[in-house]
Amino acid sequence: MSLEEKLNQAKGSVKEGFGKLTGDKKTEAEGTAEKVASKAKEVAEDAKEAVEGAIKGVKNIFHKDDN
């Protein structure tokens, strides 16, 4: 989970809220899109880290069997 993505999500939420507050549908939609895109990127990064961890675990199992 990257701090950058958390900040981008927060920025998108603020922009979305500002759009709602002012009645600016375009700004609201942009904020929503930024928030969702950052969340998707965060989820993808987390999934990549999980797969890398699983690969390391499998490699460790096979290396233990070699000894």
Automatic annotation (TrEMBL):
Span of domain CsbD-like: 3-52
Pfam families: CsbD
Region (Disordered): 1-35
Source domain of life: Bacteria
Family: Belongs to the UPF0337 (CsbD) family.
Protein name (record): CsbD-like protein
Gene source species: Streptococcus parasanguinis (strain ATCC 15912 / DSM 6778 / CIP 104372 / LMG 14537)
